Amino acid sequence: MSEPRTPVFAANWKMCHGPAETAAFLARFKQRHAPRDDATVVVFPPAISLPAFAAASAERPDIRFGVQDVHTDIEGAHTGAISAAMVPATGATWGLAGHSERRREFGDTDPMVAKKLQRLLDAGLRPVLCVGETLEEREAGRLSAVLETQVKACLEALDAEGRRRLVYAYEPVWAIGTGRTASPMDAAEAHALVREQLTGFEGCTPGRAVILYGGSVKPANIEQLLIAPGVDGVLVGGASLDPDSWAAICAAGA
Ligand code: PEP
Hints:
Blueprint: E1 8-12, H1 19-32, E2 40-44, H2 50-56, E3 63-67, E4 94-97, H3 100-106, H4 110-122, E5 126-131, H5 135-139, H6 143-157, H7 160-165, E6 167-170, H8 184-198, E7 211-214, H9 222-226, E8 233-236, H10 243-250
Parallel strand pairs: 1-2, 1-8, 2-3, 3-4, 4-5, 5-6, 6-7, 7-8
The structure holds phosphoenolpyruvate.
C-alpha cells in the first residue's frame, strides 16, 4: 500500500506554447491559481519556452517547471538536441524521460531512458520516469510484464540515491490524447504493479514512491482519479494547455 502524500500536478505541453503563448498562459494562470502548500505544481513547456517560463513565473516559485526530454550525452554533435547539463541555468528543476511519444516517434529504448534519467539526476533535476502499455499489450494480458520491463531497466541502471529521487508516471498509451481515461480502478491496479517492481531495490521505498497517472485527465475526472488508491498526482497533456482548465485541475483535492 502507499502512504498518503501531497499530490503532484504535472503538465506536459508537448510541442505547444512557444515563448509568447507561455507568457500569456502564465499571466492568466497566476490569477486563477493561488499558491498551495499541500500540492506540487510543475509544468513541462517546450525547451524553447523555458526562459519565457522562468521570466513569467519569477515571483511564483510555487509553479515549478522542467524539461520534456534530454539527450543521452552531455555534449557533442547531436543537432537539435538538449543536454541535461544545460537545463538548470534556465531555472528548470524537473525533467521527463521515457514519455510514450518519445519512445514511439524517436525510438527511445529502455536503456536510453535509463541513461536520460541518469543525466537528469547528474544535473540535479527531479526525474520523472514515464511508463505504460499500449492497447495491444493490455489486450494480450501483458500489462504487468511491460511495466516490469520498463521500470526494472531503469532501476537496475541507477544507484540507490538516484532511485530515491525518482518520480514515476503511469501513462497507458491508449489513454494519451485519446479522450479515453483509465478508470480509477485501472489506475490503482497499474500503480500497485509499478510499486511492486520497486521491492528489493536499495533506495526504493515502495509505499512512499510518488506515482502519477497520465492519460486524458480533465477537470471533470481529476477528483475521482486523485482518490484512487496509490495515485499520487497526475501528468496532464491536452487539458493543461488552457490556463483555466489547468487551474481547475490544480485545485483538486484542496
Ligand atoms: C501526456 O502527454 O502525458 C498526456 C497524458 O496527455 P493527455 O492528457 O492529453 O492524454
